[in-house]
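fyi for ur records
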Amino acid sequence: MPERNGRGEARRRARGELEGEVLAALWAAGGPVTAAVVQESVPGAAYTTVLTILTRLCDKGLVTRRREGRGHVYAPVDDQAGVVAAGMHSLLDEGGDRAAVLARFVSDLSDEDEQLLEQLLHGELPDRE
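which gave:
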């Protein structure tokens, strides 16, 4: 059943939202899983839609597909942090003036994130709580 908005109409997902939900389901699974298992974790998505998204993610190199029995199992190539970092690099590459993009990014950081970034730039591992 499709997700509904406040007026009872089917809610359309934002661009890339479904891919993110499918990746989140794969990360949560902790190992290779079938499309049916992924579908159970993605509310309102049809099985064929999940298969299409998994195929697209394979084409993008974000997910692997391996034959198992009569079907396939899928697994993410990288963890969530790696995928987000790759996306940030991609956006930075497309952003034109790298200095301006980085300056804007840094100027919008919270004090805590700024301190964390400074630690990372100096090769220090942040304290994990």
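DSSP finds six helices and two strands in the chain. thats all i got for now
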